[in-house]
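Ops channel
N.P.: pipeline sanity check, posting one input/output pair.
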């Protein structure tokens, strides 16, 4: 965890609480799985989530009005509500629109997996599932937040969520933002005093803006909430981390005390404050903020154990895959099972479709002891075949009754199963299996399943 996720986040949360809010942390374990963190090992991901909570507690976050909700637990407990909301969001947007949100994962559109296309859909769903009035996230998350506001227009939701974006702290190496792949671009919460000194002493620290003639800004450079041609990371730390707390002061390396960021910045640019003195003061100030975190992980046995496990995870460049593959299991693996998929459910269906399903069922019964007729009600909803789940449920009933009328004896030997019914029998394992399958295939590969249809979510469900 870098200092922006730790100290800066704690300061922002405290401001929200002081304004009268209740802050809900959505501990996004399933989202980390979608983004292929920790080699896709959910147990490791959840340990890292516990580490984050310990850091925030030690960094001075006011926990009196903070609630932590784990995505895996809450989504599984309220699967019907959550996934119907997600499906409704899916059917309102094209894949191309969803792919534009790829920045929230630090990915470009061309490299997205099918699991990663679910990420913005689910993050958008979270806002409505949690009944959030305000979304307090980094400005790099703005695209998915705007997706949520767009959805409100489609769904006739009058009170749109307020987007309260915070600044992205610059990388110490001169990059527009910190990067975990560049360790020297950021201070991390577990850094030693020596690490902090080394990183800040070698940090990029200009007094005047660099001249960039006719160079188009990178996407990361457009993340600035306020125009800042200087982009000095040392001053950025000073403004957004050191002076983030009320009544803060800053003591330079030569003992001068400043009570405002603006005065410190002006003196540095004017040459009154030297780079060496600015950096020395910043080293001391950052170490003072990190010391309570270091002490907590040294003295609290539970926090210390969690940190040791996280350090081991970081050292493992090629983590082993999870010990077991989690998936929905409706039938015994030894069972001789056959499945026939009904067509997308709609208000009208052709006699040829009914006859085709009957022929497939008859054929399957010849070689399988158990045959399932799978009714794709949720996929039909995603595809907008009918506008309401109740209508789709009625269409499913009508389709089965047509089969029953034409071949009652045959249908008596078939298990009819609605997609939604099956998913909700064990939603945790089902959706983890969706995510795991999605991690293995690119969006482009999944789209090849049915090139005439744009819905990646529908195709992912069909693969499962």
């Amino acid at each position: 965890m870098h200092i922006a996720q730790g100290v800066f986040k704690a300061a922002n949360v405290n401001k929200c609480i002081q304004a009268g809010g209740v802050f809900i942390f959505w501990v996004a374990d399933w989202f980390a799985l979608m983004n292929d963190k920790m080699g896709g090992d959910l147990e490791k991901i959840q340990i890292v989530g516990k580490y984050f909570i310990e850091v925030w507690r030690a960094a001075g976050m006011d926990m009196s009005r903070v609630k932590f909700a784990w995505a895996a637990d809450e989504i599984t407990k309220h699967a019907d509500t959550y996934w119907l909301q997600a499906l409704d969001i899916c059917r309102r947007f094209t894949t191309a629109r969803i792919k534009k949100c790829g920045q929230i994962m630090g990915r470009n559109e061309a490299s997205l997996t099918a699991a990663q296309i679910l990420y913005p859909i689910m993050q958008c769903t979270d806002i409505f599932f949690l009944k959030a009035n305000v979304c307090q996230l980094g400005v790099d998350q703005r695209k998915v937040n705007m997706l949520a506001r767009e959805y409100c227009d489609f769904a006739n939701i009058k009170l749109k969520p307020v987007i309260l974006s915070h600044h992205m702290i610059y990388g110490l190496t001169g990059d527009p933002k910190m990067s975990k792949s560049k360790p020297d671009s950021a201070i991390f919460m577990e850094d030693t005093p020596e690490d902090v000194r080394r990183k800040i002493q070698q940090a990029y620290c200009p007094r005047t803006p660099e001249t960039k003639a006719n160079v188009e800004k990178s996407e990361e450079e457009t993340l600035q909430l306020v125009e800042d041609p200087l982009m000095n990371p040392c001053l950025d730390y000073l403004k957004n981390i050191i002076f983030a707390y009320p009544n803060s002061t800053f003591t330079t390396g030569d003992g001068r005390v400043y009570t405002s960021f603006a005065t410190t910045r002006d003196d540095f640019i004017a040459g009154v404050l030297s780079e060496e003195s600015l950096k020395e003061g910043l080293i001391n100030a950052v170490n003072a903020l990190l010391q309570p975190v270091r002490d907590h992980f040294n003295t609290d046995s539970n926090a210390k154990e969690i940190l040791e496990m996280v350090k081991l995870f970081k050292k493992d460049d090629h983590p082993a895959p999870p010990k077991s593959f989690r998936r929905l299991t409706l039938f015994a693996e030894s069972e001789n099972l056959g499945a026939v998929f009904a067509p997308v459910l709609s208000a009208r269906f052709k006699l040829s479709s009914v006859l085709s399903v009957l022929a497939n069922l008859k054929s399957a019964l010849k070689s399988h002891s158990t045959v399932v007729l799978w009714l794709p009600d949720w996929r039909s909803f995603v595809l907008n075949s009918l506008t309401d789940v109740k209508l789709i449920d009625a269409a499913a009933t009508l389709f089965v009754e047509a089969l029953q009328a034409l071949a009652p004896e045959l249908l008596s030997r078939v298990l009819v199963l609605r997609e939604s019914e099956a998913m909700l029998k064990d939603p945790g394992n089902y959706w983890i299996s969706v995510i795991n399958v999605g991690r293995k295939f690119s969006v482009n590969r999944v789209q090849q399943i049915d090139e005439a249809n744009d819905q990646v979510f529908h195709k992912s469900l069909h693969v499962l």
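N.P.: looks fine end to end. The chain has a mean pLDDT of 88.
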